[in-house]
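Deviations from the work plan: none for this task. Representative record:
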Amino acid sequence: MTTLQASAQKQLRQMIESIERLEEEKKALADDIRDKYNEAKGLGFDVKTLRQIVRLRKKSQTERQEEESLLEVYMHALGMLDGPLSADAEAAVDHMIAAE
Amino acid sequence: MTTLQASAQKQLRQMIESIERLEEEKKALADDIRDKYNEAKGLGFDVKTLRQIVRLRKKSQTERQEEESLLEVYMHALGMLDGPLSADAEAAVDHMIAAE
Amino acid sequence: MTTLQASAQKQLRQMIESIERLEEEKKALADDIRDKYNEAKGLGFDVKTLRQIVRLRKKSQTERQEEESLLEVYMHALGMLDGPLSADAEAAVDHMIAAE
Amino acid sequence: MTTLQASAQKQLRQMIESIERLEEEKKALADDIRDKYNEAKGLGFDVKTLRQIVRLRKKSQTERQEEESLLEVYMHALGMLDGPLSADAEAAVDHMIAAE
């Protein structure tokens, strides 16, 4: 035997061609997404913030608030924030298991 | 004014929702591609090599051969290959502008 | 000529070996960074939040506050926040060039 | 309690500062690697092929040959190669568990 059998050759070609079609559709969607962000930019919106919004909307409000509170606690501890901690962040500290 | 105007709010929401729909479709396609590779794996094909094939088929045969020849020249110079250079690789050396 | 000249061969080998040494040192540092995060995790810190802190500290406080305010404006417009906008976010709205 | 204890604050600061130092060193090495590739380019070498060489040298010769043979078998089955399979690629076919 010096090459793949005809049936395996056919399977291989079908697999590759399916994948290529799917890759093309995926690329077209990636282009559409980029265009949509550009359209938003043209309307005066900030693209970086929009991307952040899209990421944040995948999380629940509770999840977002917990993350935000923990970030505030760390930032406060490092002197990156002016003023006192918010009530949410204070509650986060109370639940933390940090090193003593 | 303490918040975005109603029209801008509406635009923002439409933009974000469009992007989210496109992102979902893109994710579904990424899942389909992964499934297709898994199906190929189940048939006995090597996924890493299939991915390489998909990359290579985006290039012309000439482009592939030139890249392959150049790689062969470098590998030969570094002692990574047994035997002499192929005719294609020799031709590549003749065209190279390498430091003397 | 059937291969690279001796001088080019030598240069090629030196280049590749230099790059490999640098890549090794870079990989060792990546490992050190991962170890440091694991150590922090062992002390009770949240790794994801630590990574966010490292990113945020590369920015000035002004830059961080502007980004945070804009994010708050967009989140508020999308109904992702309870309560009114903060004073900073209101100021951000006043400076925005959003579509009408 | 309204904030992290002093000892945890100190640990947090030390962790973050260690990570930042390591990140800086890592970035400096990434810059050195980029400079080295640019230097190689200035000497007439092809950067893309050099990167491929660096990847390939992490593998054993046996591993490289097996991958190359399998790639050749698939490319041949897809009509991407002129001429017959090499002896190595024929041997690879004999060992393959491909779909019938």
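Residues 1-58 of chain A form one domain.
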